[in-house]
Amino acid sequence: MNWAEVSKSKDMEIVRTAVHQLDPNERDSRGRTPIMLFVTNRMPLEGIKLLLERNVDLEAEDKLGDTVLKKAVKFKQVEVIKLLLEYEVELNSPKGILATAWNTARMNNAIADLLLNTKGAIRLTLASEEQCEVDYILYEESLENMCNMITDLSSPVLLHAIVNGYNWDDGPVPMIAALENSACEEITLLDMYELMEGDYWLEQDEEELSNSSWKVCWRSLAEKLTKKINLLNSRI
Length: 236
Prior knowledge:
16 helices, mainly alpha, Serine Threonine Protein Phosphatase 5, Tetratricopeptide repeat, 58% helix, 0% strand, 2 domains
């Protein structure tokens, strides 16, 4: 009897025997623990509960850097995620918000919103009236009016949705307004940097920038983002 075989079994008597006879924190060649194998092989919830009762290490990482919570997110196992939360699985990562299960879940708003207690997480599911407000701002034809509306926002959730829904072909100015809004959270700043390809603009030399005020504005946004992100990280 080994964990690889047990994790594929749907016979609860086999599972019950294994959890009492085998090491509940054993690692396979890929660094996966039994609870990770149970999730990967879609063990019924009853079997997962049997293993959880054996004081398993929920914070272990495999060679991919995945925890059992990240596995459950990747395989969209909502009931398993809820069960792990009941067992007080760690939501945060010493590596920051980008290394959390919440960040892994962001392509699925409903799953990500189960993990909102993650430090730095933003609610991704919008109420209908919130979505209407976001759309109204994003479809405003006047960039000046758009900037004013972004400046007046006090909701980190709406700011995050605007940054991720913005048409970057419209230029950097509205995003500078978002950056300078005090409600703009770290994850929104990180998204903004990625969406605008900040590394690209920081790598441009002065000669390439000198012939275009538009390019200089993009570079300025990248620099301001970097400074603000670094400042936030220095306070952690």
